[in-house]
Design goal:
three-stranded antiparallel beta sheet; 277 residues; Rossmann fold; alpha/beta; eight-stranded mixed beta sheet
């Protein structure tokens, strides 16, 4: 049985849904895994904590599953160093986090809505997978930045991937991914509407005036978001069943080093069609 380390900031419903989905698949015998711990970079005792209620719900969920909860408040950890030297602070925070996690052996770490930039040594100590809302050769940055770049370039397709967490943020080797088209039914009319807008205003003004509510932007986000849960679950399943493994920051199937990430598009599309997620 594969032991997972689960890293989450516990910000809201998305964090809970990720954990709940993995645990539901485990309880149904679809994932042969055990969660060694859940680590959170808040302890919910902070004075300035705008998501306290959401995070408490997340903590209660973790405890209800009987999973050890490990916390280290980034707000309370050496605040003076954070102000004066953020790079040194990140290294010291990582060192303390690794110390707290020493009692919990795990095979693979999942960054599931974890909002801190992981320090270099932690990336090199553990195999950590992070979700990024783009294709392996797609844009970097936040999901908002990714989608605006897709629109600006007139992209034909989009996807989401799980990549290895490395010192270079969002630059680690892609491990798994899925893709979907941005043309055809449901998309063509939205592209036409965008083209008409761009005849009278700039993309920047559209960003400022409509933001994430812009219809094409919203549709791209919806199609990507609905694939994130199945991608996380099917990626974990690949590793748990020994189909693939990480060695020297590369992906292997058996003794064969793969040339690129594992394409899960077919499995994920089928799972969505069948209502699994």
């Amino acid at each position: 049985m594969m032991r997972l380390g689960w890293f989450s900031t516990g910000r809201g419903a998305g964090s809970r849904n990720l954990l709940r989905t993995v645990m539901d698949h485990k309880s149904k015998g679809k994932l042969d895994v055990e969660l060694a711990f859940v680590f959170c970079n808040w302890d919910n005792q902070e004075e300035d904590n705008p998501r306290r209620e959401q995070r408490e719900e997340f903590f209660q969920m973790v405890r209800s599953y009987g999973i050890p909860l490990v916390t280290l408040s980034w707000k309370k950890f050496r605040a003076e160093l954070l102000d004066s030297d953020p790079e040194s602070w990140r290294n010291e925070y990582g060192k303390e986090m690794r110390r707290l996690l020493e009692p919990y052996d795990f095979d693979l770490g999942i960054l599931a809505g974890y909002m801190l930039w992981v320090d270099d040594e932690t990336c090199q100590t553990y195999d950590l997978m992070n979700l990024h809302p783009a294709l392996p050769d797609g844009p970097k940055g936040t999901w908002q930045e990714v989608i605006w770049e897709l629109i600006e370039s007139g992209a034909e397709e989009q996807g989401t991937m799980m990549h290895l967490c490395t010192p270079e943020w969002d630059r680690g080797a892609a491990l798994t991914y899925c893709r979907f088209p941005l043309r055809g039914s449901g998309f063509d009319r939205l592209w036409e509407n965008m083209d008409q807008k761009l005849q009278n205003e700039t993309l920047q003004s559209i960003k400022e005036n409509e933001g994430t509510e812009e219809p094409l932007f919203k549709r791209i986000r919806t199609e990507g978001f609905r694939r994130e849960l199945p991608l996380v679950v099917y990626s974990i399943k690949l590793f748990a069943e020994g189909v693939v493994r990480i060695e020297d920051q590369s992906l292997y199937a058996g003794d064969r080093k793969l040339d690129g990430p594992y394409d899960l598009s077919r499995q994920i599309d089928r799972s969505l069609e069948e209502g699994e997620f």
